[in-house]
Each structure stands twice: as C-alpha cells, then as structure tokens.
Amino acid sequence: MLSGLLPQLFKYIDEKLLAEWNALIIKGVHMSNLEETMSFEESSLDIYSDEFEEIFDEKILKDLTRAYLDVVEPIFGSVGKKGGGAETSEGGVAVENDELKEYVLDYMPIAEPLLTSLCHLMTYKDSISCVRAVQLCARILPNLIKREGLREFVGKGLLTSALHALNDGYHKEFHPVIVSLITDIYIELRPFSPVPFETFSNLSNMNYEKLQKFEAELSQATESRKRKVVVKKFLEGITGVSKGEWFKIPTTKNQNTSSKKQLVGNYVKPKIGVLDVVDDPEQVGLVDLFE
Hints:
Blueprint: H1 2-27, H2 34-41, H3 50-72, E1 78-80, E2 86-87, E3 93-95, H4 98-106, H5 108-121, H6 127-145, H7 151-166, H8 175-189, H9 195-201, H10 208-220, H11 224-239, E4 251-253, E5 259-261
Antiparallel strand pairs: 1-3, 2-3, 4-5
Helix pairs in contact: 1-3, 1-5, 3-6, 5-7, 6-7, 6-8, 7-8, 7-9, 8-11
InterPro entries: ARM-like, Exportin-5_C
Organism: Funneliformis caledonium
Protein name: 151_t:CDS:1
C-alpha cells in the first residue's frame, strides 16, 4: 500500500508547495525571521486589510511547509527525549528507523519525489524549513552516497540546492550550517564521483585553475573546521565581493504599510538532474488538499 500511496503523496505535496512558494515570491515576502512572525501575531493590524491577509497567507504556507517536514523527518529517524538510543550533542536521543529508511531510499518511486522535495525545502524563503532540511540531508548523506544510483543526485541536485540556499541572504543566520553540508557533500562524494567538481565548475567566475587550487587546499585540511573554512573562503572568492556584500535583499516601503521585502524575479525550481519530477500533479487524486 505504501509503495502506491507515498510516491503520489510526496510528489503532489512537493508540486503544490512549489507552486504556492512561487506565487508568494512574486507577491513579496513580509516576514524574514521568527521575530517578525511573532511581531505579526502580536500586532494590531486590521484583519480585513490586504496586508493582514498577505501576511497571514505567508504564515500559513510556512506552517504547512514545516508540517510536511514533520512527516518526512521521522522516516529517517528522529531526535527525541532521553530513554533509549544514542545521545546526541544537543542532549536528545537519536532514534533510528533503519528498516523504513533503507526501504524508502532503495525504492526509487518513493525516493525520487521525497529527495526532490528536500532540495526544494532548502530553497524556500523560510529559514526554519531550510535549516531542518539541511540538517536532515546531512544526517542521511552517508546513506545516499553509498548508493551508486544516487550519487549524481547528491553531487548535482542536492549540492546545487545547498548552494542556492547559501547564495540567499534570507538564510544568512544559518549559513554556517549550509556551508557544513556543502563541505560534507564535496569531501565525502568527491572520491567516488567527479560530479561535485563539475557542479562547482558551473559556478559564476569559475575556472579550472581555481578548482584545482581549491581541491589542493581542501586535501591538506585534515580537520572538519579547517575544511569548512576552506570551502567558505573558496565560495567568497567566487562572488568577487566580501562576505558582507554577498547577499542583499532590496527593500521598498509602501505608503500606508510597513516595509516589505521585494524579491526581484520569479522563483525558479532548482535543476535536480536524474531525480526531476515532471508528472502532472492533477493526476494524483489529491487536488483538494491545499484548497
């Protein structure tokens, strides 16, 4: 039953979330962090105003996105209270779900839409969803890399999405976590595949000499912290500007409302190579889920 339901469910929810986030980006994002969300909840905005409706819709979309992660995360294990399992650095306990995790990753009709959605979750304008998706991908990275059929996805789709997230000032607070995932992907996958090298070669202002120098420096860094420094420095060099100038979101002010972030251009679905999903979600039979 799961083999028939889950592929369609994951695919449909991913397509619907992507469409809703596209629409939100076109309108403009109001809340850039948790503090602004809490400020909205405590505000005295007119509930019948257009601004209130837009902010409320944005909050609902973020809640739905996080709820989807609430469903996905337990598939690969979760961090719970003490009482069983291995203790984590945060003081919780890692509860593994190996049998289900192995089944999902081995059965491509489920793995494809699920992993595709993780790529998208990293790039939405919701830092909580982004960092949760990044941390989840970091946890399952060894399981992905050991599967030869998923290595191209890791080195192209997953790495590209992480780079998109890093290149977004909206997630600036969590850039260290994103850099950590990018570093792990490159370090762990590069011995098995040239795809990470090829993905980096497609970055702006990149050439073969820069990549050769980067890999030489990376190979000499024996500690995790030093490797992350090498990656961060390398990515700074690509932008051609200092870190403080990497990511700036222009702001405009409406005459009768508070400042509102305007994100220029359409939100573009990241390319994910072999795991792209192009089927029509209307065929899934869940068309009323988000209505």
